[in-house]
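tool=predict chain=A
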Amino acid sequence: MSPPLDFVPVWTLILGLGVFFYVLLDGFDLGVGILHRFAPDAEARNLMISSLAPIWDGNETWLVLGVVGLMAAFPLAFAIIIPAVYFPIVIMLLSLIFRGVAFEFRFRDAPHRGFWDHGFATGSLIATFAQGVVLGAFIQGFQTDGRSFTGGSLDCFTPFSILTGICLVFGYALIGAGWLVLKTEGALQQRARRWGRNAFIGVCLAVLVVSIWTPLMETDIRDRWFGWPNTLLLAPVPVITALIAWATWRALNDPASHVGVFLGAIGLFAMSYIGIGISLFPMIVPHRFTLWEAASDPSTQAFLLVGTLVLLPVILVYTGWSYWVFRGKVRGDFGYH
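tool=predict ok
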């Protein structure tokens, strides 16, 4: 009898792309929310909101895809990771809900618009920080006994995970500033460049600290990056990251560059994502279980893949069409043009 088909690489690619698209799309969305509290006046705040209004509520689709895909394709990983990061996930979800309510109510409750604006900014900040805590806890790994999580509910809150939470705030602020540079003009665009420069410095410091701390924390990661000949083979990763950072800084200081900051921030996120993948692959529960060990039965993966391969192109087309339709600059008087 022939061996069953291996769907793990396919599901790894789907989940990897789903998480990456979520980080990018909801990342700039949350980043604009973080920067919203620094807007100088009501007109600037309205412009920032208007730049998101047509597309913001579709970005969480990728979060749903990632969570459902993890639960269905890698149930062991889901059973360990979710209890381990339960509190930051709950905080994130509550913040996203309140943020969404604030987004809608600021249009319908004009007398209290200031309150809803603060709610939108605060919800964006807390949700971003909570996502960073989840990331940091994931990189550190979880305490397990066999196939069960045996750690405490608050074990995910460590100095490293708190640092990654702060790092992600700077990262989302940078990509949010890039979105505003792309979508706005005049004084708000110049202000977004200043915000972006401040966030960029935070991102560079964050990448440096995390890149040093992570291999010091885990022997396997240190050996993977600094063992010979891996050091030579992986050298292009930091080199390309440095070049992207240089190009992003130039774009932040070039008044003629409108898309460069946004693309540079995407590039920095992509290289960080690749770095995490290099550090942890093929582990899906870091330092405990590989993708293959945590995968569901091949028949289950095949069944789920049929529906996913139908829905995924629909999501991609809908997302792409939305961004294409609203591809111009945003104006406070009549929206996009």
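DSSP finds 14 helices and six strands in the chain. The mean pLDDT is 88.
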